[in-house]
Amino acid sequence: GENVEQHPSTLSVQEGDSAVIKCTYSDSASNYFPWYKQELGKRPQLIIDIRSNVGEKKDQRIAVTLNKTAKHFSLHITETQPEDSAVYFCAATYSTLTFGKGTMLLVSP
Amino acid sequence: GAGVSQSPSNKVTEKGKDVELRCDPISGHTALYWYRQSLGQGLEFLIYFQGNSAPDKSGLPSDRFSAERTGGSVSTLTIQRTQQEDSAVYLCASSLGSRTDQETQYFGPGTRLLVL
């Protein structure tokens, strides 16, 4: 089955800095890669996703890149704000969605 | 419109007891998923329902876990003879279409289960 590795497990940045979270996957057949944000005590919410026919996607301060050859994809957050502090999960799927273990992002004012 | 709802929000039970967790998906969503999230861990897939098809039970950790989806809507996850290691947040999600459509999954608030 699919195996998703996510790094780093924790990430601390200063407000205004950029943050990058990286994930690798094992199943070359995976073709959909969503990213979820989970604030403390709340449900995961989709923030951006990318499909295998696209190399990069942007939505305001958030971007995701996908390298199918290397089987890795990354989340980029620019101009970070304290409200970006949360746990971020990457996921990959061909059949069932497999999640990474999450990255706790802390943005300090 | 209303999102995915789950009940109860919290459940404390004694080891050996059975528990039932309920999920109400978004109206019109044909796909429903159950996940387990242990403290500080990722989301572990448990079971998936799509319409009237046989569920994908490949993620259920033991035969103490079972789930039903009645009328293609509400789902119940049952854990029999609960163990302390079952303590976790159980999350339900629904999506508009099948997994092959790669539809966005919308999560419920979860049920926090504590087995004493």
Descriptive keywords:
heterodimer; A: 109 residues; mainly beta; five-stranded antiparallel sheet; 11 strands; 56% strand; globular; B: mainly beta; six-stranded mixed sheet; four-stranded antiparallel sheet
Using DSSP, what is the number of strands of chain A? Answer: 11
Structural class given helices, strands, pairing of chain A? mainly beta
Tell me the distance between the termini of chain A.
Answer: 41 Å
Which descriptor suits the 3D outline of chain B? Answer: globular
For the largest beta-sheet of chain A, the strand count, sense and barrel status come to: 6 strands, mixed
Indicate the low-confidence ranges of chain B by residue numbers.
none
Distance between the terminal alpha carbons of chain B, to the nearest Å?
Answer: 37 Å
Order of helices and strands of chain B: EEEEEEEEEE
Nearest-integer average pLDDT of chain B: 91
Helix segment count of chain A? 0
The helix content of chain B, as a percent range, equals under 10%
The secondary-structure element order of chain A is EEEEEEEEEEE
In which range does the helix fraction of chain A lie?
under 10%
**Main sheet specs of chain B:** 6 strands, mixed
Helical run tally of chain B: 0
As a percent range, the share of strand residues of chain B is: over 45%
In words, what does this structure look like?
The complex is a heterodimer of chains A (109) and B (116). By secondary structure, chain A is mainly beta. Chain A has strands at residues 4-7, 10-14, 19-25, 32-38, 45-51, 56-59, 62-67, 72-77, 86-92, 98-99, 103-108. In chain A, a hairpin with a 4-residue loop joins β7 and β8. The radius of gyration of chain A is 13 Å and the shape is globular. Helices cover 0% and strands 46% of the residues of chain B. Chain B has 116 residues and is mainly beta. The N and C termini of chain B lie far apart (37 Å). Chain B contains no helices and ten strands. In chain B, β4 (31-37) and β5 form a beta hairpin. Classes of the chains: A mainly beta (109), B mainly beta (116). The interface between A and B is medium-sized, with 23 and 22 residues.
